[in-house]
């Protein structure tokens, strides 16, 4: 009832799992990940043990193959399961039980693996691996490309309903709160892949802007401008992203651009423009900067 892809990207140091299903809230059951250790996708008649204890096994130092073998040995019904695991070293193991409803199967690629059941045929899992391996760039985008390829190849025979993407760092940074790169879910929607793709792009823009805002507040505005996303359509942006971008540009001395954004913000979301003045009151930004860019 689900198709998924698991991957580790050695270039970016990320590993991730993406999934789509006609089932409700697939993100609550299929994807599991622990930054610095590994990830799991458990589906068909999914058993949470593979996710919870699987991550424990990876934390204890087992490889993906060792962890999956150990859990299958204590599962009373392994024939009902379809499970994939990736360890932090890039090792991949995957299993499709004999009782998984057809079409069901999996394929292991160079740094990824795809698994699917109740889909329209083998091209569903094959196309995920092909699309992922042909793609480049940010891992969440590559995972979206794989899901879109699966749907184009026939997808879940019962249709679409939910999707999820979970991406973490393959190596711990020492700051656990920064080790989850993307954790996005669409629980109930007629076009979950369209929505998850939109959220992936917004997630990228949002986190780049937040990172830039923090750099600017720390006295590094020129570096902050270099971190800002290029593809900005003000009409399509959240008001908070417009506000943060305007302040970053102002702190970098690009006052004309900042004024233009602030004017658009005041017209689009006057409440946000009013809130912006409180940044000065809180001491985050010089009040004079805000008076310069914000319309009366």
How would you portray this structure in words?
The chain has ten helices and ten strands. By secondary structure, the chain is an alpha+beta fold. The chain folds into two domains: 2-189, Aminohydrolase, N-terminal nucleophile (Ntn) domain (Glutamine Phosphoribosylpyrophosphate, subunit 1, domain 1); 216-293, no CATH class. A six-stranded antiparallel β-sheet has the order 7-8-1-2-9-10, with helices on one face. A four-stranded antiparallel β-sheet has the order 3-4-5-6, covered by helices on one side. Helix 1 packs across helix 2 and helix 5 (192-217) packs parallel to helix 7. The relative contact order is 0.12.
Which secondary structure elements does this structure contain, and how are they paired or packed?
Elements: E1 2-9, E2 14-21, E3 31-34, E4 38-44, H1 48-59, H2 64-74, E5 81-87, E6 92-96, E7 105-108, E8 112-117, H3 123-134, H4 139-152, E9 162-169, E10 180-186, H5 192-217, H6 221-227, H7 239-251, H8 255-268, H9 270-281, H10 287-293
Antiparallel strand pairs: 1-2, 1-8, 2-9, 3-4, 4-5, 5-6, 7-8, 9-10
Report the sheet-strand fraction: 15-25%
Order of helices and strands: EEEEHHEEEEHHEEHHHHHH
* Helical percentage: 40-55%
Number of domains: 2
Count of alpha/pi helices: 10
**CATH architectural grouping of the largest domain:** 4-Layer Sandwich
Biggest beta sheet attributes? 6 strands, antiparallel
| CATH class membership of the largest domain | Alpha Beta
Report the span from N to C terminus: 56 Å
- The mean pLDDT is 93
The outline comes out as elongated
Strands side by side in the biggest sheet: 7-8-1-2-9-10
CATH-defined superfamily of the largest domain:
Aminohydrolase, N-terminal nucleophile (Ntn) domain
User: What is the strand tally?
Assistant: 10
Estimated structural class:
alpha+beta
Q: In terms of per-residue confidence, which ranges show pLDDT below 50 for 5 or more consecutive residues?
A: none
Question: Which fold name is given in CATH as the topology of the largest domain?
Answer: Glutamine Phosphoribosylpyrophosphate, subunit 1, domain 1
Q: Specify Rg, calculated over alpha carbons.
A: 22 Å
């Amino acid at each position: 009832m689900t198709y998924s892809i698991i991957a580790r990207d050695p270039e970016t140091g990320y590993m991730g799992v993406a999934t789509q299903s006609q089932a409700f809230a697939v993100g609550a059951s299929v994807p599991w990940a622990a930054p610095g250790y590994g990830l799991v996708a458990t589906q068909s008649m999914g058993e949470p043990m593979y996710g919870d204890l699987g991550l424990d096994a990876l934390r204890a130092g087992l490889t993906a193959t060792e962890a999956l073998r150990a859990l299958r040995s204590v599962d009373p019904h392994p024939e009902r399961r379809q499970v994939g695991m990736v360890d932090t070293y890039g090792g991949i193991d995957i299993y499709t039980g004999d009782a998984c409803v057809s079409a069901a199967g999996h394929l292991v690629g160079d740094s990824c693996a795809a698994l699917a059941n109740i889909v329209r045929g083998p091209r569903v899992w094959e196309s995920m691996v092909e699309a992922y391996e042909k793609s480049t760039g940010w891992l969440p985008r590559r995972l979206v490309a794989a899901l879109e390829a699966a749907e184009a190849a026939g997808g879940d025979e019962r249709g679409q309903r939910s999707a999820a993407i979970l991406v973490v760092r393959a190596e711990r940074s020492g700051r656990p709160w920064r080790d989850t790169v993307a954790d996005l879910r669409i629980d109930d929607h007629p076009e979950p892949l369209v929505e998850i793709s939109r959220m992936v792009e917004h997630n990228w823009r949002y986190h780049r802007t937040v990172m830039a805002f923090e750099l600017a507040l720390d006295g590094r505005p020129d570096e902050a401008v270099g971190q800002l996303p290029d593809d900005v359509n003000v009409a399509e942006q959240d008001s908070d992203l417009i506000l943060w971008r305007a302040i970053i540009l102002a702190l970098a001395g690009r006052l004309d651009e900042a004024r233009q954004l602030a004017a658009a913000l005041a017209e689009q979301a006057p409440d946000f423009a009013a809130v912006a003045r409180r940044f000065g009151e809180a001491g985050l930004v010089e009040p004079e900067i805000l008076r310069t860019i914000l319309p009366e």
